[in-house]
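Sequence, please.
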């Protein structure tokens, strides 16, 4: 199946290696406007297209940090946050697409969530509310595609 955009608005589609969508049973190819003009200008023509891809998996390693408050309760509440951040955005995980190599500090994504997780653990440890156990998990691979999360 071949798709291309006939609109005057550029969609800027890019390949996302972290996309977890279900695989399709047929090959799907999205071509640029330039390629569509070059190869599809005669809609009655028959095309013989050969395509080779170079997609490979990357192995990643992460380190999750886990804490547990055992109140000897029947139920356990799980709380989590990720402590990694975008770094320089080199994995294509930044919303900024300028191509500049700038540090992406993680205050909102997700240092604030990690700080809240630590503070909740501190407060719950000294709390008199002991009707639940609490499992705290700080994840390290969220920005790389929810790995370990």
């Amino acid at each position: 199946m071949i798709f291309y955009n006939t609109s005057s608005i550029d969609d800027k589609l890019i390949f996302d290696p972290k996309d977890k969508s279900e695989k399709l049973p047929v090959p799907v190819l999205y071509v640029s406007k330039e390629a569509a003009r070059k190869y599809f200008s005669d809609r009655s023509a028959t095309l013989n297209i050969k395509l080779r891809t170079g997609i490979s998996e990357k192995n990643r390693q992460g380190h999750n940090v886990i804490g547990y408050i055992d109140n000897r309760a029947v139920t356990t509440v799980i709380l989590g946050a990720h402590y990694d951040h975008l770094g320089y955005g080199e994995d294509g995980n930044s919303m900024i697409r300028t191509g500049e190599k700038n540090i992406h500090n993680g205050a909102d994504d997700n240092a604030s969530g990690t700080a809240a997780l630590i503070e909740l653990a501190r407060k719950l440890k000294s709390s008199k509310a002991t009707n639940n156990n609490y499992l705290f998990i700080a994840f390290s691979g969220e920005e790389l595609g929810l790995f370990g999360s």
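The longest strand covers residues 76-82.
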